[in-house]
Amino acid sequence: FKGGDTCEYLLSSGRFLGEKVWQPHSCMMHKYKNSEAKNCLIDKHIVFIGDSRIRQLFYSFIKLINPQVKEEGNKHGNIPFEDKSASIKVDFLWYPEVNGSMRQRIKSWTEGSVAKPHIIVAGAATWSIKIHNGSNEGLTQYKINITSIAPLLEKLAKSSDVYWVLQDPVYEDMLSDSRKMITNEKIDAYNEAAVRILNSSSRNSKAKVKLFSVSKLIAQETIMKSADGLHLPESSRDTNAMILMNVYCNKIMKPIDGSCCQPQPPLTLIQKLAFCFFTFSIIGYLIISLIHRNNFRKNKPCTDLESGEEKKPAISTPNVSTLEMLLHSFCKLGLIMTYFYLCDRANLFMKENKFYTHSSFFIPIVYILVLGVFYTENTKETKVLNREQTDEWKGWMQLVILIYHISGASTFLPVYMHIRVLVAAYLFQTGYGHFSYFWIKGDFGVYRVCQVLFRLNFLVVVLCIVMDRPYQFYYFVPLVSVWFMIIYATLAVWPQIVQKKANGHCLWHLGLLLKLVCLLTCIYFLSYSQVLLVKAMKYSLCSVCLSQVVFHGMLFAFIYLALQKRQMISEGKGDPLFSSRVSNILLFISIVSFLTYSIWASSCKNKTECNELHPSVSVVQILAFILIRNIPGYVRSVYSSFFAWFGRISLELFICQYHIWLAADTKGILVLIPGYPMFNVLVSTFIFVCVAHEISQITNDLAQIVVPKDSSALLKRLLCVAGFFSGLLLFSAAQEQSRH
């Protein structure tokens, strides 16, 4: 840890991910759109002053504001640019040498009568080398001139952002005869002089002229693609312009995926209260632990000196109290939340952008598949979608989704389409699992509802407080919570139809089907109303898809349980689910369906068109997987304990990845060990999985305390929870008002 100033890293160091993606050291760079650039630079005046290399940077910069700009005009003259819609003015001033003329122009900005530019980007040296034919006299004159300019730049830096662009290396083999004297050795000497002079003054400590040296690193990798050996290729110039935009705009726009140059956000009132709460919990637990430890020492068996036997204490050690368990859980949770905050809100650990390669996605997939097959055990029961099997299903899907997120595979359309099926499968399991429970158990009590909602939402609520994020940010938890309540309401409202009642008369089955039809009608009405009201089609179509798949999960559960009750399927150990002929036909259709979807997804060219077809085909893939997994008896009788273990903490894994495995709210990757990408992933993954498992244990422990089975105690807890959220909303409203 070398400090929190990521601007210095952005301006001076980094590396290429692949051929074109630049990764600054320790932080993430945002890719600005022209609308964002305009919002940041509104009413600003920017000046680029220097030679042809600075002119190139000028054009790349203004193209971020207006991509339609063409590189026209006098190459050896001043070039103005203005965007009247945002009142942005950007000028290029042709001063190819650091001399008296450049000094006079810079001096004019320091005088009170002339408006100072908000941003000044300056740099020049190659013309001095060329004019003086690479002589030492030219370097000496350059040092004298830049020494005279340095105090003026420092004075401007007190009110403006001033950047001095160091000279990029050249590709000497491609230089024309008139430029052969411009060697990399000479360029290094000129750069060394500029750095020494601009950094030497004591006045430069506070109002610092920023050295734009990262361009040298970019040029070292790309200058061989130059057209003339002197000027950078367009992609490198665009990268430099984007770095410049990040340096200035990140602190203004505060993009989530642009951690470079962003100051650490101040603690909110709610975060401070949470910190105090966890601190008191830790202190309270330590006090209780010390008291118990002293009591244990007093009651410790002592040795009888005469007989040599231990005497047992008369008082037995008491059981762990509810208060101690509560404080213990909050103590651990407080330490874990501290780690969350340090990882993704403090500027302590580094963050990097994602970069997708086929190997970064498919090699880990093959690795976990081998591990999953290796840890194979027999199931306790051989029913369709038994507990071990659903845990296994959740586990391998969650691991695939995690690899998808950390590898940035969303940019590869075939992988994206397959992952959408996995997300739909999670919602299918939501519909299947909750419907099956209410249908079989007939338990519509408040205790069941509170237990499920607590387990789903506890971690998210804590993170909303600690990480200062809205509830909707963790979109999957609100989604499954709402659908749990919809499923509960559908089955709980009059007439309550459960399996026990339906077995008495077949008309009750028709009544339940009628309920499901009403639910489906409401789903389609709300979903397509959203399509009409909201123009953002991708969100509308996504909601339609997810709504459909939850309903399909409920419908599948109803049909399966009805067939099971009438003994129309065989679920014995080793027995196929249906007759041999029917089983073979269904297996063949399922495999063909799988392959057809994969071929279609691999041939997809347009994400919008593929998403439009996804709602109607995703459920077919889910049903095909269920049939392949359950029709053969020997396949149904085994499961992967490796995948099942991850499946039991899949919710915690999904939520925790936002802040302690990925970074910047999933936009980047957390870097605990810089310089060693593979080792960093291993270490951060180990901590991430351990934390997720620990949070799962904490949630289970607290659920027993916060949601008691006793009705009167539960009512008191609910009143306390209502009071807590009322206070939280009031604090949140006051906090938002203070921000605005």
UniProtKB/TrEMBL annotation:
Protein name: N-acetylneuraminate (7)9-O-acetyltransferase
Transmembrane segments: 273-291, 355-375, 395-416, 423-440, 446-466, 473-495, 507-527, 539-562, 582-601, 643-664, 676-695, 715-734
InterPro entries: Cas1_AcylTrans_dom, NXPE4_C
Main location as per UniProt: Golgi
Family to which this protein belongs: Belongs to the PC-esterase family. CASD1 subfamily.
Biological process terms in GO annotation: carbohydrate metabolic process
Subcellular location: Golgi apparatus membrane
UniProt keyword annotations, A-Z: Acyltransferase, Glycoprotein, Golgi apparatus, Membrane, Transferase, Transmembrane, Transmembrane helix
Domain Cas1p 10 TM acyl transferase: start-end pairs: 253-718
Gene Ontology, cellular component aspect: Golgi membrane
Reaction catalyzed: CMP-N-acetyl-beta-neuraminate + acetyl-CoA = CMP-N-acetyl-9-O-acetyl-beta-neuraminate + CoA; a ganglioside GD3 (d18:1(4E)) + acetyl-CoA = a ganglioside Ac-O-7-GD3(d18:1(4E)) + CoA; CMP-N-acetyl-beta-neuraminate + acetyl-CoA = CMP-N-acetyl-7-O-acetyl-beta-neuraminate + CoA
UniProt membrane topology term: Multi-pass membrane protein
Ranges of residues in domain NXPE C-terminal: 22-92
Taxonomy, superkingdom: Eukaryota
Gene Ontology molecular-function annotations: N-acetylneuraminate 9-O-acetyltransferase activity
Pfam name, any one: Cas1_AcylT
EC number: 2.3.1.45
Underlying gene: Casd1
